[in-house]
Design goal:
- The protein is α/β, with parallel strands linked by helices.
- The chain has a domain at 59-127: Nucleotidyltransferase, domain 5, CATH 3.30.420.270.
- Helix content is 33%, strand content 16%.
Length: 134
């Protein structure tokens, strides 16, 4: 009498361990990889001085959301502002200049003005910001 051996069923290969390995690799490379462009030189970001009082004195340049400019509360155009600041900087070269821009002011109004004020010889330019409320 011959007994028939039961046929052995092949278990389908499970890919769950492979999925685990792929997720571990993904997390590993996300943690060690840099997602931003690396500068070819050392860059140390500026440190915000929130919570401290602003130094007194100096002059304040205000920029509205639409790009209007005022110097110490008096509205001026860009050329008038730069001329007034040039005169002020020749008298007092170490004067502090604050730039108080509206939160909705576009950078195209702020950045060129900062560059122009720097070309006049301003040494201290502060951008006024409001800290977020907790």
């Amino acid at each position: 009498m011959k007994f028939a051996r039961p046929t052995r069923k092949e278990h389908p290969e499970t890919i769950i361990p492979l999925i685990d390995v792929v997720f571990f690799l993904l997390i590993f490379f996300m943690l060690i990889g840099r997602m931003d462009a690396t500068a070819p030189f050392d860059v140390t970001p500026a440190i915000a001085m929130t919570g401290t009082d602003m130094p007194g004195g100096g002059t304040t340049v205000s920029i509205s959301a639409t790009g209007q400019i005022a110097l110490d509360g008096a509205e001026l155009d860009t050329s008038g502002l730069l001329e007034t600041l040039r005169d002020t900087l020749t008298k007092t070269p170490a004067i502090l200049i604050r730039i108080n821009a509206h939160k909705d002011a576009e950078l195209r109004f702020v950045l060129p003005l900062v560059a122009q004020i720097e070309t006049l010889g301003a040494r201290d330019i502060e951008l006024v910001v409001t800290p977020a409320t907790p």
